[in-house]
Amino acid sequence: MTRSVSARTFPVVCVGGSAGGLDAYIRFLDHFPPDTGAALVFVNHLRATTTLLHEILPAHTKMPVALIRNELKLRVNHVYIIPPQRDLHVWKGDFRLEPISKPRGWPDTITVFLKSLAENWDGRLFAVIVSGYDGDGADALEAIHHAGGVIIAQQPDTASQPDMPESAIASGWVDFILPPEQIGVRISSLISPRHARGWGAVKTHV
Prior knowledge:
By secondary structure, the protein is α/β, with parallel strands linked by helices. The chain is built from 6 helices and 9 strands, in the order βαβαββββαβαβαβα.
């Protein structure tokens, strides 16, 4: 698939997680400004359980939070949540949902979406891997790197389940290893210089 000339050019931040991810998502959002001009996409790899993130996360951000539906258009300063049992892609500025391609074993929905972003999005990319089992997301990090994206893994000793961030780190493509509070601050400072003064305001565990 060739890169679409009509793709949007604002930054997209993909936050991928699983078991223990909710804690990381909340700590991330609590320190992410609502006016960076980026779209945030939370890809929690659930096989069957109905997600409640679109009901929980609005308490932690001033940005609108929406459960993704097919052909929903990405918008800046919005938060989007993947529904369960779906693979997520992006095409011509819209989300595209497909039946999950790996219904058994550990899902790879984070990998699928990150590869789609690397191929089809012209704006700056940020890939964030947080708490979860297995290594979903790690196989897409090289593509994100070559697309000019920034890759951040949750500091493993701050994760309930460190498998996913450890797999990301082992890939060799991670740019930063940070606790969730610092991830949000760091990304906002990279997107917008006016947010840079907040960088370092939150103490890390490093």
